[in-house]
Design brief:
Elements (H helix, E strand, L loop, with lengths): L1 E5 L2 E7 L5 H13 L5 E7 L3 E8 L27 E4 L12 E4 L20 E7 L1 H8 L3 E4 L2 E5 L4 E7 L2
Length: 166
């Protein structure tokens, strides 16, 4: 279990090593490396998701410590349902590195449907087991545009510390 200690409260995530072994290991390694500490939930869209893990507190893309992209495991049978955690990526289905999002709604349109650029989907690799109240607080914050990004919380939501337990 990985716990994200944020300035809004704690979010505990159970990783699914059985269905998304490489993606869960990737997330755990970033957590063990301390990569997520000091990063923001930089994109918040109520009714959709809250995204974090890749931007520093001053909204700079965090590059130091970032590893190579991982292979997309979205064809694992897991769905982007409320409370699940998935990897963010670019249009390239195999471009996920460190950024992740927590679904705050059932987002079936993000699920894997085919092994092509249109259907790969977004890999679910875990779920929130404690702290959905914190996620729900985050999803309701006021957002705006900042430094070329939209849906940025007006007040910073910072991952201050990460703890790992078995």
């Amino acid at each position: 279990m990985i716990t994200l200690h944020t300035n809004f409260g704690d979010i505990s995530i159970e990783l699914d090593f059985e269905n998304a072994p490489n993606t869960a290991a990737n997330f755990k390694q970033y957590a063990e490396d301390g990569f997520y500490e000091g990063t923001l939930f930089h994109r918040v869209i109520d009714g959709f998701m809250v995204q974090g893990g890749g931007m520093s507190a001053d909204m700079q893309d965090k590059m130091e410590g970032r590893r190579a992209p991982i292979e997309n495991e979205a064809d694992n049978g897991l769905n982007n349902d409320t409370g699940t955690v998935a990897m963010a990526r670019t249009m390239d289905p195999h471009s996920a590195t460190c950024q992740f999002f927590i679904n705050v709604a059932d987002n079936g349109f993000l699920n894997h449907t085919a092994k092509n650029s249109q259907g790969w989907g977004y890999c679910v690799f875990g779920k929130v087991i404690e702290g959905m109240d914190v996620v729900n607080s985050i999803k309701g914050v006021a957002t705006g545009n900042m430094m070329g990004h939209s849906d940025v919380p007006k007040d910073s939501i910072i991952i201050e510390k990460v703890s790992i337990s078995e």
